[in-house]
Amino acid sequence: MHYPPHEAPTSGVQQLIGFHPDLSNPDGSTRVTLDLGPQHLNVSGVLHGGLHTLLLDVATGFACARHCAMSGPFVPMLTLSLTTDYILAVRDGQVVATGRVTGGGYKILYAEAQLHDAEGKLLSRATGVFKRAKT
User: Fold this and answer.
1) How many contiguous H segments (helices) and E segments (strands) does the chain have?
2) Residues sharing a CB contact under 8 Å with residue 59, sequence separation 6 or more, in sequence order
3) The domain defined by 12-132 carries CATH number 3.40.50.720
């Protein structure tokens, strides 16, 4: 299946955290990048676990939104469940979350995402359940 590029709507959390979504991959997957700064680190000096989960949630949610939209307008999604596994810590550089849809139907979709560092090391991964938002 071929997906056209989509423009990601800007959100307050995107402006606050500073991540950058890319919804242009023709396979429907999404990429979310973040250049780490001191504001992203916890008291141990590594990327805060909540930001791992946030980036994975954004990547999976946008992948579901693209899947529902196909060639039409962007479709907002709601996260029903997100399970995150933390694997490695990271202190600096850029991290990239990649999300993709793994199944589902019209209203409910399943998706997964992985967060990697600039060297390609797996930092965390998540699986989630998402629902088409009522508009």
Assistant:
1) 2, 6
2) 21, 30, 31, 32, 97, 98, 99, 113
3) no
* Residue-wise pLDDT tens digits, 52-81: 999 999 999 999 999 999 888 889 999 999
Domain definitions of the chain by residue range = 12-132
Please report, as a single letter, which amino acid is at residue 57.
D
Section 34-46 average pLDDT: 98
Q: DSSP code of 49? A: H
Global pTM exceeds 0.70:
yes
Report the run of H or E that residue 9 belongs to, with start and end: none
